[in-house]
Amino acid sequence: MTKENIFIINYGMGNLRSVENAVKKLNHNCKIINNPDELDVSSKMILPGVGSFKVAMNLLNQGGWVKKIKSNVLENKKPIFGICLGMQLLADTSEEFGITEGLKMIPGEVKNLKNLGCKLKIPQIGWNNVTIKNKHEYFKDVKNDMDFYFVNSYVFLPKNQKNIIGLTNYDLDFCSVIANENIFGTQFHPEKSSKSGLKILSNFLNA
Questions:
Q1: Phi-psi region for residue 77, left (φ > 0), alpha (ψ -120 to 50) or beta?
Q2: Catalytic (active site) residue 136
Q3: What is the DSSP string of 152-168?
Q4: Torsion over CA of 116, 118, 124 and 129, rounded to 10 degrees?
Q5: Is pLDDT above 70 for 3?
Q6: CB atoms < 10 A from the CB of 8, how many?
Q7: pLDDT tens digit string along 73-123?
Q8: Can you tell me whether residue 185 is helix, strand or coil?
Q9: Element (H, E) at 38
Q10: Residue ranges of the domains in the chain?
Q11: Is 4 one of the annotated active-site residues of the chain?
């Protein structure tokens, strides 16, 4: 196994065990951390999340995570992988239960699919495909238009099109994969998305 310090951030709203199991299945050591100070010795970090943006940001702020995440990612350029809500938290703001400021790591906003005109059942739950729009190293050896597992009512609208790596259609096209230098996120759950999802996670871990 590798000796890297791969940390899964436990701020109170993560799908932690399934992510941990996936990382270990890929033959990497990882640790679920409860103390933001530990990020200073991290090599890479994973930010999972299930639930409300507003509640998540409150927990991140109250737990002292925001400053530590931003200093390690933005200043020290450590890689971070946001999963599902964890991807949305990378945005500037979300409209869920009123406007809430996010981590402000990739310019953009999070909006409800219904408010964007989606007529299908919300939340989207199940398998849907991802069309790759911009090449990225974490999609190496992942075929275009593969299916991944989604559970979401809200989507990330990035300000800059160059940050969109993949798009998914659920009555309308939305950004399902986003990246900006060392910052990466997927709206789907790679740990629950069979071989293609695990390959993306593996590419992140091995980069």
A1: left
A2: no
A3: ESEEEEESSGGGEEEEE
A4: -90
A5: no
A6: 21
A7: 999 999 999 999 999 999 999 999 899 999 999 999 999 999 999 999 999
A8: strand
A9: none
A10: 6-206
A11: no
Distance of CA 141 to the CA centre of its chain: 20
pLDDT digits (tens, 9 = 90+) for 150-203: 999 999 999 999 999 999 999 999 999 999 999 999 999 999 999 999 999 999
Side chain identity at residue 37, one-letter code: D
CATH topology of domain 6-206: Rossmann fold (3.40.50)
Report d(CA 135, CA 133) in Å as an integer. Answer: 7
- Of the residues 20, 30, 84, 175, only one is catalytic, namely 84
Query: What is the residue-wise DSSP string for 90-146?
Result: TSSEE-TTS-EE---SSSEEEEETGGGT--S-SSEEEEEEEEE-S--GGGTT--TTE
Q: Is 96 a catalytic residue?
A: no
Q: How many CA atoms lie within 13 A of 67 on its CB side?
A: 5
DSSP state at residue 72: I
Helix/strand/coil percentages in the chain, nearest 5: 30, 30, 35
Give, as one character, the DSSP assignment of residue 84.
T
> Could you say which of 20, 28, 30, 191 is catalytic?
191
